[in-house]
Give the backbone structure.
Amino acid sequence: MEDMILREIVVLFILSIIVVLVCLRFRLPSIVGFLLTGVLCGPSALGLIPSPEAVDTMADVGVAFLMFSIGMELSGKELVRLKKPLFLGGSSQVLLTMAFVFLLTFWWSGPRLGVVYGCMVTLSSTAIVLSILQQKALTESPQGQVCLAVLIFQDLAIVPMVLIFPLLAGGLELDTNSMIFAVGKGVLVIGAILLFGKYLLHRLMFSVVSTRSRELMLMTTLGLCLAVALITSWLGLSLALGAFLAGLMMAESEYSLNTLESIMPFKEVFSSIFFISVGMLLDIRFFLTHLPVISLCAAAIIIAKILMVVPAVRVLKYSMRTALLAAFSLAQVGEFSFVLAKSALGLELISNDAYQVFLASSILTMVLTPLLIGVAPRVTARILKRPDMQTAEAATDDGSEHDDAESSDGIIRDGRLLKDHLIIIGFGIGGQIMAHGAKSCGIPYIISEMNPTTVEKYRATEPIRHGDASFPLVLEHLGASTARALAILTSDPAGSRAIIANARAMNPSLHIIVRTRFLGNLNSYKEVGANEVIPEEFETSLEVFARVLNHYLVPRQTIDQYVSAIRRENYGMQRRLGMGGSIMDSLPDLQLVAYAVEEGSPLAGRTIAEAALRKEHGVTAAGVRRGDVINNNPDAQTQLLAGDIVYLLATQEALAKAAHLFHTEGKEAA
């Protein structure tokens, strides 16, 4: 018997390695690979697992670890940070989806099954959605934050759903005595867990951590998780609920990170087995003979979830674009829907045929998730091109800055027409730094932000407006036609490209600078009209490289030469791939930079000829600003005074060498 169980586990592991490798090659999530592994080794396909009882047991443990990790990750700080999108947006999504599915199924299945199907369909896959958003660097985007909040609320909603099913099946009587006993039992369990967590857990974990034994930490974590789960199961509650309560208890401990680190490898292994066990339940013959019905159900689930997520996100005052992108991301059925479906089958709430249809449809929606998220930006762009959508989206620009007015020529603030201003898209850390610098330098600016909570927070102190800047009408309200520069500091590649293209069409002379996470996005941004693209991974790597060399006391001039050469080579390589651009793009080494002449610097009181800027230092003074007067064509006899702003045209290397001329002697070295 032991040899048979070991053989089955080995077969599962080897087959899952092969299938998951193939899935990852086609950019499908590993969860899809585990589901397909279960289908292949199940009794309806290859029949490699003759006795799936051991697999079912490990799957139950996997569900417990999943719930334990969810309880661990739902910290109080995370719930507070996302409280509005979590509770308002999450509850709206769950209630709207359940009500919609209930109404669709009520006429042919009755109210009881309407609730059952509503609970199973409303959940989405936390593992699939978050993994894809992380791969695409979209977790910090507006749609990424909305998806995270909704998924957390769905995880919280699992607990009452698990308790509802036995009630619907008649497993719990509704008489007064039974209700009092059930409530009392639940209060007793939760109270005992809370008391243990408050008075005993800290002492236990302190004793364990003091030993510095990873083995003991692992055994303690596993023991607490499974012990609480078994206690709740023994009292008639679910194993998953007990594991969730154990996770919440451990989350409040100061040693929660060590605990989570210990459990994660086991959670990944057992949850993978859980998905394999779900795939094993799928009947291939049933799937092939009922393919039209299954396909229709999968399409209905996707459409229903998209239609219900959109209003749930719009309630939070996010743009239609964010709502649509989030809706496509959450359009699949979640992993815990399988737990609910299995429970419904065991309680005889649904028939085996209905279970097989739901199982197959759910797996199909999971497999289609990467495709849905991939096509979402293009589909969203087509939907939002409609004139009525443009007008409606522009209306979300709520005029947060009360002192602003609008004219046919641009924005009027404090009685003045806002021209040559800076438009900042996105008000995260980068946007706040940009706004602070612009304010310090006296540069007029206006901010566009899609997160309504951020707009509400800063509307009293910043010229910030709520709206999706990928819409031309929103850009018009921001004064793009009269602006001098546009800085895009968001984490949404598709949205950034739309902003660049629309802004460039509106104002051909606008200088557009955009931040991107990866160097590979440089081409696509340049093609639609960006003047400068700053890849975070490349520039951050350069800064780390420069600081390492500085730590080894490499001369600063040598470091600057290395950095300039690397920057030239990498950006030049991107340009050689066929990008068009202006004449300045064909001279990538030339830069126009402003330097202030400081009191006591080598240039203060000297003429341009005396300073020999071009002859000895290789830089050209293209202009000099003194107060509000700008000399656009200074001659050699132009005297430079302290406080003057000199505009130099040269290569970055030459500019770096000449920078010391503008500083007070000894200041730069210090």
Observations:
- Residues 398-403, 405-410, 575-588, 666-670 have pLDDT under 50 and may be disordered.
- The first strand starts at residue 404 and ends at 406.
- The chain is about 65% helix and 10% strand.
